[in-house]
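My hope is that you will study the record closing this message with an eye to the fold:
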Amino acid sequence: MHTYTRLIHLLWLIALMVICLPSIARAVALFSEESELFLPWASYQGQVYTVRMKQEDENPPVLQLTEIHSREISPTPGAIATVDDDLAVSIPLVSYRGELYNVTLNNTGQGSFEIANATPVPVSTDRGTALSVTQMETKTTAQIATEYPLAILAGLNLRYDVAVYRISYQTQDAFGNSATASGVIGVPLGIQAGAPLLSFQHGTISSRAQAPSINLEATGADIALYLMGARGYLVVVPDYLGFGDSDGLHPFMHAKTLAWSVIDLIRAARALATDNAFPLNGQLFLAGYSEGGYATMAAQREIETHHADELTITASAPMAGAYDLSGTMLQQVLSGDPLPKPMYYPYVLLAYNAIYGFDDDITSLLSREIAETVVELFDGTHDSDTIDAALPSSSNELFALTLINALESGSYHPLRTALENNDVYRWTPVSPTRLYHCLDDERVPYENSVVATDYFAAAGADIKLETLFFSNHTDCAIPALLNGNTWFDTLVQLP
């Protein structure tokens, strides 16, 4: 390869890495279940460092400095943590069990720091505000019955024409900043009595062209919008951040941003219904498949933990989600077996690196031989099948050897903590909850639902795992959705 061509390739890689690596002004520190604190960036006297501490004493909580490295970047006033001349540390964003805190550490001498303050980070006040609404299309019940013969086969009673609208609304990004998101709303026309509201969360996409607000059919959003809308549900489907009206890399499998995008679309839809005198009956149903199943559980947890005074969930049906990232899904990576859906794993790694700031050098995380290819593939123009076809199925060929060794040996790596912080099953559901999962799911192992169900059951939740018997992850989607719909029918108050 000519020197000029090499230079062009290098510049192209650096430009692409900007979408996958965090800016110096924004990153989230990580606190683990083992009481280890990872500060991706700490600014002290004009230099920036990566710092790791571990809690040694519990009362009062004292952290001992265990590791510090200089980062090869220019310090700015917006670094993740600031250290003053007395070595007091101010950390604006720390994630613990997925919750965000502002933390202050006081220096107690000899590399020890006392946790002086930990305060939940306040949320943006404009979340759930609708910014624009435009009509996309309308289908009559006759058109829906013709275009979706599944409705007839499933015996669904199609009673209402459905109008679909594209909506832009305010939500919040991973760093607590206001962000613009988008999605779609399916409105049953001519309803006289109150309608239940269904939020449907779609599965994994990587191409911006597949966002529901761009292409209803690409994710199956059209099935939820039309089949459930024609039966009397008001249906909402979020695009998620990184798609539609939101720029940048999608924060794949990041629990908080997925939950916020769901909740804030529900808020916007309810406000629009009120403003337009559209009758809602107060019932709220959540459902989603694959990443949508994970997003459903994340949203349910967020609603019941922080918004129970505002939203009451009638029933929740997470389906085939990767709820146990730090256990079941990590073991799939480390098993040595070919990865059934290779694109999932660098997608998570790039998204988490952009949020938690593991490393400036992407080749410390991804195999040097394919790092450039991987970054290019996640630029928002390639679909998941295209990405899979371009990637090796072996973890050892996908990831840097140092990362694999750290994960296999059990030694500390912030990725493990990030996965742990984004597990979505360590809580107690309040609403009736049914998990749907195929026993032979090769992409998102059934064990994810077993782990979640066992945890919920032990905590006394109203929980049930519905085991389905279809051949693979893709084939299970429609049966799971139909089974979830059957359960909702026993609870819903349709007009």
